[in-house]
Structure formats: C-alpha cells, structure tokens
Amino acid sequence: MAVLNISYMCLSKPLLPKSNHSSSLHFSSSLSSPKELKNANVKVNENSFGEFVAKAGFVGLLSASLFFASDPALAFKGGGPYGSEVTRGQDLTGKDFSGKTLIKQDFKTSILRQANFKGAKLLGASFFDADLTGADLSDADLRGADFSLANVTKVNLTNANLEGALATGNTSFKGSIITGADFTDVPLRGDQLEYLCKVADGVNPTTGNETRETLLCR
After folding, report:
1. b/e per residue, 104-135, with b = 16+ CB within 10 A?
2. Beta-ladder partners of 146
3. How far apart are CA 152 and CA 165, in angstroms?
4. Which end of the chain is flanked by fewer CB atoms within 10 Å, N or C?
5. 195 burial via Cβ count (<10 Å: 0-12, 13-18, 19+)
6. Do residues 116 and 96 lie in contact, with contact meaning Cβ atoms separated by under 8 Å?
7. How far apart are CA 4 and CA 10, in angstroms?
C-alpha cells in the first residue's frame, strides 16, 4: 500500500514545464547576444532533464508496486507478533514455535511436520490445508483455531485447549494423542468423532473438562 501511495504522489505532482521546438525559436528570436542564447539553452536542457528524472522515478516506483502485488509471498506477512516472517504457504518442517504468542497467525497451506508448538498461544490461528503430521501441540491454546482440510495425523494434543476450533472437510486426527485435550464445540465428522472417542481420556488442566465429555462420547 505504501508503494502505491508513493506512486500516486509522483503521478499527481506536476511535472516541470515541457520544452518544445516553438519555445526554443521564441527564445532565440528575442535574445540579443550569444551569451543570453547560451543561458536560455541551458535552462531548457535543465527543464528537460528534470522532467526525465521525474518520469523515471515514477516508472520505477510503479514497477516495484506491480512486482510486490504480483508476488503474494513477498506482499504477504503472517499476522500476529511473529509476523516479521511469512508463515503462510511455507515449508516450516521442524520449526520451533514453542511458548510463542501466535494469535491469529496464518499458517495456511504450510508444511509443519514435526513442528514444535508446545505451550504456544494460537488463538484464532489458521492451519487451513496445512500438514501438521507429527507436530507437537501439547499444552497449546488453540481456541478458535482453524484446522479445516488440515492433516493433523500423529499430532500430540496432550492437554491442548481446542474450544471452538474448526475441523471441517477431510481433517484427520488419526494417530494423534488427545489425552486431556478439550474439544468443546469443535465440529467433527462422524468417522473422526468415532475414532477420537476410542482413544479419548484425561482431563484438561486449564478448563477442568474431561476429554470424553467435550467430545460428547457415548
């Protein structure tokens, strides 16, 4: 946005007056000495050079703005306190995010295999279509997180709080450890609910809710 604003300012700023053939003739006819003629030519050249520089600057800024707009990886920054790095659509295999505050962080479509999120604050974070195979999400605050279409197989969710998280589509928790996890108000497919109820146990230390109860297991 900042680049585009600068480009607009350059465009809206009046360019230096154009010099043309007729003006050069007018100057020449009204001058009485070679010295005055020389000075007039210098002024015309200065105006032309200034106009050229202004146009070149505008074209450069416009090109830069189009470049960043056309490349999402460069234009996009992940949200949250960790937003100094791009976390969307990245290979973050084995990355250590343990204990970090990553509220509303965007991990959409990223590869997060064996990533460490132990004890991280991930409220509202998006793992849409991400690969979390073997990741450690134990003790993590995952309230309102989006796991839609995500691969959450063999993930450690021990004592994680997933209240209000999304798990729509083909999200799979197969092989995951869910001891003490809180699944309150998490929409789950029938097959996933059936599978999780077979392995559910423990009580979440933060909410005090039993895992089986939060899954509404029969």
Report:
1. bbbbbbbbbbebbbbbbbbbbbbbbbbbbbbb
2. 126, 166
3. 13
4. C
5. middle
6. yes
7. 10
End-to-end CA distance of the chain: 53
CA 15, CA 95: separation in Å to the nearest integer?
51
**Which residue bears the tokens 């360019």?**
15
pLDDT in tens, the chain (218 residues): 444 444 444 444 444 444 444 444 443 444 455 555 445 454 445 455 456 445 555 444 444 334 333 333 333 344 444 445 689 999 999 999 999 999 999 999 999 999 999 999 999 999 999 999 999 999 999 999 999 999 999 999 999 999 999 998 889 999 999 999 999 999 999 999 999 999 999 999 999 999 999 999 98
In sequence order, what DSSP letters do the residues of 62-74 get, joined into one string?
A: HHHHHHHHH-HHH
Contact 112, 131 (CB under 8 A): yes
pTM of the predicted structure, to 2 decimals: 0.63
> What does the alpha-carbon distance between residue 104 and residue 88 come to, in Å, rounded to a whole number?
12
- Taking the C-alpha atoms of residue 150 and residue 157, their distance in angstroms, rounded to an integer, is 14
Residue at token pair 């690969």: 131
CA of 120: how far to CAs of 103, 143, 213, in Å? 9, 11, 24
Rg (CA), the chain: 31
